[in-house]
């Protein structure tokens, strides 16, 4: 069975690389290719989890690396670096991040979605940070070259080690400033190859990069991606921080819920009131709440 898996994955990998790379440019939000929605999934693909070993793990790591999701080493072991790399890939492909390579993830590996920039007018060499999906995408020559899972500001007040503040990673356009090689110890903890882009806020490697925003404001990345990002993020490189929109299919429902809370118009108080009187300025209308998110 494993030989069948290897043959299927290698053949599909060659086909997918020829048809999906390089990625198209155009919100680091993934967009499906026209033929990726109805791809038959081979029954022999097995689910891989932390601790799994074998050629399937090795091939999955190579595939992720070729797609711009560095998994660290290419050993045949499903380690913590691969776990966080799989989270990044799943989020970029519209999947829920889970601790395994399951059938939907195998299908996405064979037919990945295209990466789209968060900022259409961004410079060709830049880094984009998506606060909603907790993803970082490094772009070079208008193409994504490194995609990684991140953990940004927890959006809560904190007081630690005599230092108080609000944990937030502000949206905006910034540029890389000071870079510090190796480990650096700050007021709130240790950072691996920190790259500062907004005052005291930096992109840096960390031993703790959970699936949710948990930092004091910095952008935590897995340790195995920190050095590559440090080399890529030269002084002056643009860093764009945005919050991408939720998937389109969720917006109509949210809008319907908002509209359902709008009070209905009252009938005229007396028969003799004119239409102009009953719609005087200041009355609630059906447009109330439009555009709010």
Automatic annotation (TrEMBL):
<dbReference type="InterPro" id="IPR005490">
    <property type="entry name" value="LD_TPept_cat_dom"/>
</dbReference>
<dbReference type="Pfam" id="PF03734">
    <property type="entry name" value="YkuD"/>
</dbReference>
<feature type="signal peptide">
    <location>
        <begin position="1"/>
        <end position="28"/>
    </location>
</feature>
<keyword id="KW-0808">Transferase</keyword>
<dbReference type="InterPro" id="IPR038063">
    <property type="entry name" value="Transpep_catalytic_dom"/>
</dbReference>
<dbReference type="InterPro" id="IPR002477">
    <property type="entry name" value="Peptidoglycan-bd-like"/>
</dbReference>
<feature type="region of interest" description="Disordered">
    <location>
        <begin position="242"/>
        <end position="293"/>
    </location>
</feature>
<dbReference type="Pfam" id="PF01471">
    <property type="entry name" value="PG_binding_1"/>
</dbReference>
<keyword id="KW-0961">Cell wall biogenesis/degradation</keyword>
<keyword id="KW-0732">Signal</keyword>
<keyword id="KW-0133">Cell shape</keyword>
<feature type="active site" description="Nucleophile">
    <location>
        <position position="218"/>
    </location>
</feature>
<keyword id="KW-0573">Peptidoglycan synthesis</keyword>
<dbReference type="InterPro" id="IPR036365">
    <property type="entry name" value="PGBD-like_sf"/>
</dbReference>
<protein>
    <recommendedName>
        <fullName>L,D-TPase catalytic domain-containing protein</fullName>
    </recommendedName>
</protein>
<dbReference type="InterPro" id="IPR036366">
    <property type="entry name" value="PGBDSf"/>
</dbReference>
<dbReference type="InterPro" id="IPR050979">
    <property type="entry name" value="LD-transpeptidase"/>
</dbReference>
<comment type="pathway">
    <text>Cell wall biogenesis; peptidoglycan biosynthesis.</text>
</comment>
<feature type="domain" description="L,D-TPase catalytic">
    <location>
        <begin position="125"/>
        <end position="242"/>
    </location>
</feature>
<feature type="active site" description="Proton donor/acceptor">
    <location>
        <position position="204"/>
    </location>
</feature>
